[in-house]
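This section describes the prediction task in plain terms. A model, or a person checking by hand, is given the sequence of a single protein chain and must write out its three-dimensional structure as a string of tokens. No templates, partner chains or ligands are provided. The sample shown here is typical of the held-out split.
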Amino acid sequence: MKETHFENIKTKESSLPERTAEQISKLIVEQHLTSEDKLPSEFELAELLHVGRGTIREGVKLLVARNVLEIKRGKGTYIAPNPGEIPDPLGFAYYPDQFQLALDLAEIRAQTEPWVARMAAEHATTEDIRRLRESCAVVEQDILNERDHSQNDVLFHVAIAKCTQNMVVPKLIPIITYAVTLFVSLTESRLRMETLIGHREILEAINDRDGKRAEKAMAQHIEYNRALLQEIVSKLKQEELSTSKKEDE
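The expected answer:
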């Protein structure tokens, strides 16, 4: 194993388990460890970091909670597949008004994803486009077979982001597309055909390396989503208001 230099973690102000977690994270980064790699044993880490095995266990627990490490029963502790990533990093699931959240996210998407589509068209490789086409086909099959396509819809937008060759963008897309599941559940069949058409137009523009067309196709796709969602949310709020008035009578 490549030599890694560690600070004396006992001299720092933060708690010992926290500093231990930081040093284990440093080890993961500097040694380029991946999900296929097993973390050194508690004994080895204790010797390396000059702390007790109990402290190592506490540090590992912190990293498991942060999705940096995962414990496989009977096998040991391994690096997580996507270290540090958590499903809902901004706590969107706890926002009291999910409808308004969906509309706010649609605004963010409208400002972000057209640019992503243009960059994808300008930088996509042949392999990127092959994968994007496959992803598009999976969403289409979900829709045609009347299955929930929300998760594969997000993956399609992630595949577009990967075409940009920018390592940050694919990490952001799942966050701003958080409301896709809500879009799908609210709009039902009304959104399905537009999704089919919109995805195909975006895909073909990227395939043709036409940045402006890809940008326009994505903008239209997002705007249709936003407008339909706005219409449905307004209708639901009106129904709630009517119900409330009847109850007060």
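For orientation: The mean pLDDT is 88.
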